[in-house]
Design brief:
This protein has 267 residues and is of the alpha/beta class. The protein has eight helices and seven strands, in the order E-H-E-H-E-H-E-H-E-H-E-H-E-H-H. The strands form two sheets. Strands 1, 2, 3, 4 and 5 form a five-stranded parallel β-sheet that branches. Strands 6-7 form a two-stranded parallel ribbon. The chain is globular. The structure holds zinc ion. Zinc ion binds next to strand 3. Zinc ion (ZN) binds next to strand 3.
Length: 267
């Protein structure tokens, strides 16, 4: 109940490099995944729309919500995935590794052999309704970095995209999905509103917004696998109460304090 599929894609191609082949999905399969979302009546929103919904007391819980996200910034997002999304009017979020994009003036990072987007393409993607999030500058395993290097990855990528788009970057995705309590805290302190991992679970309205679970279709997953996930047959991220429940408890505690009368026993 209330499970939220957040799909995580990389390349949408039949010709991935060896390094990313495991995570590439063919254009045909991707289109079929998108058809499944449409057939099931999912409302697809961007990550920022989603976290705004989660934080809103007016969140409409009767709507089936799903998110479509892409990591790294492969060129085929613009040439292959976006036309498929636009045909179906599906919103999406693209997390770019800023050191991997073409045409940048700042430190390029070692990257896979695949074609990547150019910085000059980002504004037209935003025009097309895509939210651009950050995915670090050099794609390290962030849970292995010291605090200074972690902060660099978080803030460098954010600033570069903000300069390119002249608007705030609110969403982050951890490279390789790796994070931990310290990384999550630094991500929040860097000014992001949310961050996504990969946990191969359905997300849940009470997920930690800095540890959102995503489902990652891989080359070996069939369309039936994805159909099963969308029909709720995947583990649901466990153990979290909804933020609204937490907010309600805080309200009740505060109310209990302010309504105390002198001389009353409060145990
Ligand atoms: Zn990545």
């Amino acid at each position: 109940v209330n499970a939220i599929p957040i799909l995580c894609y990389h390349g949408i191609t039949t010709e991935p490099s060896d390094r990313v082949a495991q995570f590439a999905v063919t254009p045909d399969d991707f289109a079929r995944h998108m058809d499944l979302l449409v057939e099931r009546g999912y409302k697809c929103v961007t990550m920022s729309e989603h976290v705004d919904d989660l934080r809103s007391p007016q969140m409409d819980r009767s709507t089936r919500t799903a998110l479509i996200t892409f990591d790294d910034g492969y060129l085929d997002f613009a040439t292959v995935a976006l036309p498929i999304l636009q045909e179906r009017q599906l919103a999406s979020t693209l997390y770019v590794t800023t050191g991997w994009l073409n045409g940048g003036t700042s430190e390029p990072a070692v990257r896979p052999d695949d074609p990547f987007l150019d910085w000059s393409q980002l504004p037209e993607l935003v025009e097309a309704g895509v939210e651009i999030g950050a995915h670090s500058h050099t794609h390290p395993q962030m849970d292995t970095l010291d605090a200074a290097a972690t902060i660099y990855e978080l803030t460098r990528s954010k600033a570069l995209i903000e300069d390119a788009l002249q608007s705030p970057v609110r969403s982050f995705a951890y490279p390789h999905g790796y994070n931990g309590r310290r990384v999550r805290r630094l991500t929040e302190q860097a000014g992001y509103d949310s961050a996504a991992g990969v946990r191969n679970m359905l997300s849940h309205p009470g997920d930690d917004p800095f540890g959102l679970a995503r489902l990652m279709p891989e080359r070996t997953n069939t369309v039936d696998d994805v159909r099963n996930w969308l029909d709720g047959n995947a583990p649901i991220a466990p153990g979290f109460e909804s933020m609204r429940t937490k907010g309600w408890r805080m309200y009740r505690r505060t109310r209990a304090i302010v309504t105390r009368q002198p001389g009353t026993d409060y145990r």
